[in-house]
Amino acid sequence: MKSQPSEVFSELPSLFADAASSLDVIRQSVRQKLLAPSEDQENSLRRQEDSVLRGTEDWNSFRCFGFDEEGIEISFAPYAVAAYASGPQFVKLPFAEFKALLKPWFRNALEI
């Protein structure tokens, strides 16, 4: 009988083999996605780069997350990375972008 991992993940850094170096990869990807031009740029409010930088400084910035079969979705509180009028702010990170950084047991559990 195989033993199960004894750790429970309630925080995003607990999924990564090296949380400190993984933060840079996750932060860079999130910032790139948040700062990308919107599909409806004429009618949308532009995100301010300084708000995105401040709102993605550390692991605590990524505390609201969930999974689906393709990746992790990170949600941000109002005003965390954009004005309230910009609507809900979230980023989807495909597992392919960071699967090598995950703990082996977690990759195996997700079959990625």
Description:
The protein is an alpha+beta fold and 112 residues long. It has one domain: Actin, Chain A, domain 4. Helix content is 27%, strand content 13%. The chain contains three helices and three strands; from the N terminus they run ααβββα. Strands 1-2-3 form a three-stranded antiparallel β-sheet, with helices on one face. The longest helix has 17 residues, at 19-35. It is globular and about 40 Å long. The mean pLDDT is 86.
Key features of this structure:
three-stranded antiparallel sheet, 3 helices, 3 strands, alpha+beta, 112 residues
Order of helices and strands: HHEEEH
> pLDDT under 50 segments (min length 5)?
none
Q: Give the radius of gyration.
A: 15 Å
Number of strands: 3
- Net shape: globular
N- to C-terminal distance? 23 Å
Please give the count of helices: 3
As a percent range, the share of helical residues equals: 25-40%
By CATH, the architecture is named: Alpha-Beta Complex
Largest sheet: 3 strands, antiparallel
- Please give the order of strands in the largest beta sheet: 1-2-3
Compile the SSE list and pairings.
Blueprint: H1 19-35, H2 49-54, E1 65-67, E2 71-76, E3 89-94, H3 104-110
Antiparallel strand pairs: 1-2, 2-3
Gist of the model:
27% of the residues lie in helices and 13% in strands. It has 112 residues and is α+β, with helices and mostly antiparallel strands.
